[in-house]
Amino acid sequence: MSVNRVTTRTVPEEVDGVRTAIRGRRVELAFIEGRLDALDRGEGGIIRVEGPVGIGRSRLLAESAAAARRRGTRVFEGAADPDQQFVPLGPLLDGLLSGEEPLSGAVGLRDLATTPGQRFWLLQELGDRLRETARNGPLLVVLDDLQWCDDLTLLTFNTLAAGLSSHAILWLVAVRGGSVPSGVRTTLDRIRQAGAHELALAALDDRATTRITEDVLGAAPDPAVLRVVRRAEGVPQLLMALLGSLREAVTIENGTARLPAGPPAPREFPSVVRRLDQLSGEARELVRTAAAVGGPVTVALLAELLGRSSAALITAVRESLDAELLTESGDRLAFRHDLIREAVEAGLPLSLRQALRGQVAELSAGSAASPAGRPGPSAGRVRADVAEAEGAGPGDEDAAEADRLRTAAAELAATAPGPAAERSLKALELTTADAPERPRVIAETIPLLWQTGRAAQARELGASALANGGLGPEDEARIRLALARLAAPFDFSEAVRQARAGAALPGIPVDVRGRLLAMLAVGLSMSGAHSAAERVAAEAWETAAAAGDRSAEATLTTVRSAVSFHRMDLAEAFRQAERSTALADALGVSTSLWVPEALWHALLSNTTGRSAEALAAAEEGVRITREQGRTAATGMWLMTRSRILLEAGRLTDARADAEAASATADDLGPGNFADVTLRYVMMRVALHTGDQQTARAYAAQARRMRSDGAPVVRHFGSWMLALMADFEGRPDRAMAELDEVMTSPAADRPAYAGLVDPADAPFLVRLALRAGAHERAAQAVALAERLAALNPGLTFLAATAAHARGLLDNDLALLVRAVRLYEDCPRPLARASALEDAGRKLAATRTSEAVPYFDTALALYVRAGAERDVARVRRRLRAAGVRRRPATPGLSGAWPELTAAEVRVVRLVARGLTNRQVAEHLSLSPHTVGSHLRRAFTKLDITSRVELTRLVSHRDSGE
Q1: The pLDDT of residue 382
Q2: 3-class state of residue 535 by DSSP
Q3: What are phi and psi of 333, to 5 degrees?
Q4: What is the overall mean pLDDT for the chain?
Q5: What are the tens digits of pLDDT across the range 5-28?
Q6: CA dist., res. 497 & res. 502, Å (int)
Q7: What distance in Å separates the CA atoms of residue 212 and residue 850, rounded to the nearest whole number?
Q8: Is the pTM of this model over 0.70?
Q9: Fewer CB in 10 Å around end: N or C, the chain?
C-alpha cells in the first residue's frame, strides 16, 4: 500500500474534489472532541466507528484527525485496501510513515513485518516507538476500513491497544457494518471487552440532506430538487454522487436551485464504479446482469442469463452480498439501494441492456420461480413435476406447461411486460375452454396486454369471457376487476360500471371485493363524482383492512387525496398523495391497481404551482415506464408532462409531448384521460399561438366531451368551449358554455367553479366582466380567495387571488401585488397576464409607467412562444407610443427562429444522429424528436438533413 493512496483517500462529502462542510454528525463529533479532551489530559482509549458502505465513516475520521491536529496532537492515519490484504502490517505502517512527521525509526519495521519468525520483535519494537513518542505528547492513531486489514495488522492493533492503554494514545478505527471476516470479528469483540467506545453512524436526517444540497448547489433547493436528493435516503456517498449530476442540471433563480428540465438521467457514480472494480470478474458480471434485469431477481434466473448453474454462482453471490451492493430479499437478490442499481445499469451500453432484457424474455418458462408477493400459480411447478413423474398424457403436459408459462409471466411482469404478456397468452392457448383455471388466466392476461399497448385485445378477451357465461362469482369478479383497471384511463364511466358490477357479486373473497371497491372509488373520483367516491372509499377501507391488502390501501389513499383536494385542503391532499406514492413504490408497479400513484401527485403539484416538482416526477415517470416497456403508462405520463409544460410556459415542448402521446396512443384511442390532458393542452397551445384551425378542431372534440358520462370530462369540455368562444370574441357565449358547471350541485361542483386550473381565475373574472356577468365574476373571486386562505403556504394561490380581486375591483395596488407574488412562482404565463393587466390599468393615466410592465410581459410571452399574446402586448405598447423589435424565443442569437428544445434537436441531428439516437441522448421519445425536427424544418425553410447540416455549419462559423 502506498502512502499516496492513503493521503488522497476520497471521502463522501466531496464533489469534483471540493469538500463541503460536514453535516448531520454533530453528536458524533462532539463525542470525539470529548475523547480528545481526555487525551489532552493523558487518557488514551479506543473509539470504534461502524456503519454501512457510503455512510461517511472516512469523512468522520478525517474531520476528527483535523480536529486533533488543530489541538497540536500528533496524528498518524492509515487505511486498509482490499487489493493490499496480503501486505503484512501495510495499513498500520503506512499510517505511521505518512504525514509531515513519521514515527521515528518506523522505516526499519517493514523488514521485520515481512521476515518470518520476527513477529514478537516487531510488536516489541513498534510498541517501544509508540510509547516513546507518546511521552512527548498525545497521539491519535487512525485506522480506516478495518474489515480489509491483514491478520498481522489486526493482531498488532489488538496487542498494542491493550498494552499501551495507560499511555496518551487514542485509537480511532472504522469498520464496515454487517458481515466481516472472522478475524476482524474477533478483534472487534476483544476491543469491546477492553472498553472501546462505539459510534454507529446512521443515515443523515432531512435537515442535513437539505443543508448539504445547499452547500453543493450554492442555493436553497426547491421541492423538485429535494425530491431527487431524498432518493439517496440519507446515505452521504450516494447523496454527493447525485448532487454531482445535479450541478449540471440546476439553475439558480432568486436564490433557489431549480431543475427546469427535470432530473438528469441516471449515470455512473465513481464510488459505485470503484466498488465494482474491487469485485472479481464473476461477481462484477453478476451484479451488472442483475442491474439490467431490474427488480429483485432469483439466483436461478441469473444463472440462466449467465449460462451457469446456480451452484457455480455461490462465490459471486456471496462476494456481491459482502460488498453490500446486493442484499437478500426473501428468495431473491435485490440491490441494496435503487440508486446503485441505476448507476450500475447506466454503465452498460443501451444495446447490451436491451439484449439482456431480450434474453430474459427468451428464457425457458420452466426455469422461473414464482415471485413472492405477486399473483401467479406457485403450485404449477409441483403439478408439472408430478405429471412428468407419473407419465401423464398430452393434456396433462399442456396444463403443466401452461402453469410454467404463467409462473414465467409473473416473473417477467415487473421488468419485461411485453414478453410476460406473450407467456400469458401462450398459457391461455394451452388452457382448455372448460379448464377451471381458464378465467384466472384471462384475468392475469388482461392487465399485461393493456400495459403493453394492446388494450383492444385485452378488452375483447374479457368481454368474450363475460359474454360466454358460466363463470362463478369469484372468476367473474376477477375479470371485471381487470376490465375496470383497463378502462380507467380510457372510459371513466366504464371503469365505474365494471367495478360496481364486480363488487356486487355474492360470496367473492374479501381481498377481491376490496380491490373492486378501491377501483370503484378511483373511477368515481376520476370521473368527478367526488361525494360518491368518498362514500365508496369509506367502505373500501374497511374491506381492504380486513384483507390486509396494501395495494388497495395505496389506491384508496390516492382517492383520499383527491377528496381533500376537492375540499380545497391542499396540505392534506399533498400528505395523502405522498403517502400513496410511498406505498405504491414499496409494493412495486406490477401490483398497482391503477397507473402509478405518483402520477396523481405530479398533477396535484402542478395545479398548485409546484411546476418544477411536478415536472421532475413526470420526467422520471416517462423515463422509467419507457425503459420497462409499459406503453400505456408512458402515454399517460407524456400526457401529464404536456399539461405541466403548458403551465410552465413551455408551449412548444407541451405541444410536442401531446403530439408524441397522441402518436403512441393505444388501439382503443386516447380516451378520457387524454380529454383532460392532451386535448386540453393542444387547444390551449393553439389559442396562445393564434392557431385558429387547430383550436377549432379541438373545439369539436370539446363538444363531444360535453355529452360524456363523466362530470369531469363534461367540465373540461365546457371550459374548452368557453375558451374558444372568447377567442372568437363572444364573451356572452363563453359564459353560457359554463352555465352547467357553475350551477351544478355543490357536492360535485368542481372546486374552482368553472376552472380547470387556479391560474385561470383572473381569466374567468375578465371574461365574466366583459359579458356583464358581475355575479359570476364575484363568485370566481370568492372561491380564489377562499382557496388561498385555506392554503396560506402556497404563494401561487395568493397571487391568483390578488390578481382576480384586482380585476374585479379595478384596483391597481392589488394587481401590482399579484405581479410581485407571481415573481416567486414558476408560472410565467400567469405572471405575464398579471403584468399585462397592471400595465393596462396604468396606461389609462400614466402611460410611461405602464411600459415596463408591458415590456416584461412581452418578454415572458416571447420566451413561452405565445405568439397571439405577443401580438396583443405589442399593440398595447404601440398604443403607448413604443415600438419593440420583433423577437422569438431561441437558445442563442444564432437561431432566432427556433425554441431552445428545437435547437438541441437540430444540433444533434446535424452531427449525424438518428431520431432514435437523439431521443436517447435527450431522454425524449422519438415522436417528440420528430415533432421538433418537423417544426424546425418548416421555420428554417429546409427539406433535408443535408441542408440542415450545412446551415448549422454556416451559422456556427458566423457566416
Answers
A1: 29
A2: helix
A3: -105, 135
A4: 82
A5: 233 344 445 555 556 788 999 999
A6: 9
A7: 43
A8: no
A9: C
Q: What's the 3-state SS for 266-295?
A: CCCCHHHHHHHHCCCHHHHHHHHHHHHHCC
Return d(Cα 75, Cα 69) in angstroms, integer.
Answer: 7
Give the Å distances, CA to CA, from 524 to 462, 517, 706. Answer: 22, 10, 18
Cβ(381)–Cβ(313) below 8 Å: no
Q: Does residue 750 register a pLDDT over 80?
A: no
Q: Are 551 and 570 within 8 A, CB to CB?
A: no
Per residue in 372-392, pLDDT (tens digit) is 333 333 333 323 333 343 444
* Cα–Cα distance for residue pair 880/877, rounded to 1 Å: 5
Per cent of the chain over pLDDT 90 is 29
pLDDT of residue 466: 93
In angstroms, the CA 92 to CA 599 distance is 54
Give the gyration radius of the chain's Cα atoms: 33
Residues 197/46, Cβ–Cβ less than 8 Å: yes
What is the spatial distance between Cα 717 and Cα 723, in angstroms, rounded to a whole number?
10
Copy the grid coordinates of residue 202: 446512521
CA distance 789 to 150: 66
Q: Which three cell numbers stand for residue 64?
A: 476528527
10, 437, 594, 915 from 447: Cα distances, Å: 48, 17, 10, 31
Side chain identity at 814, as an amino acid letter? L
Angle between helices 417-430 and 350-362 (to 10 degrees): 10
Strands (E), 312-470: 326-329, 332-335
Mean pLDDT of the region 568-574 = 87
Helix (H) or strand (E) holding 852: helix 847-864
CA–CA separation, 580 and 593 (whole Å):
12
| Buried-exposed string 143-157: b where 16+ CB fall within 10 A, e elsewhere | bbbbbbbbebbbbbb
Q: What's the gap between Cα 206 and its chain centre?
A: 17
d(CA 323, CA 319): 6
373-382, 636-645, 695-704, 790-799, range with the lowest pLDDT: 373-382
Q: How many CB atoms lie within 10 A of CB 808?
A: 21
How does 379-388 read in b/e, with b if 16+ C-beta sit within 10 Å?
A: ebbebbeebe
733, amino acid identity: R
pLDDT for residue 372: 35
Residue pair 633/621 in contact by the 8 Å Cβ criterion: yes
Looking at residue 611, its amino acid is S
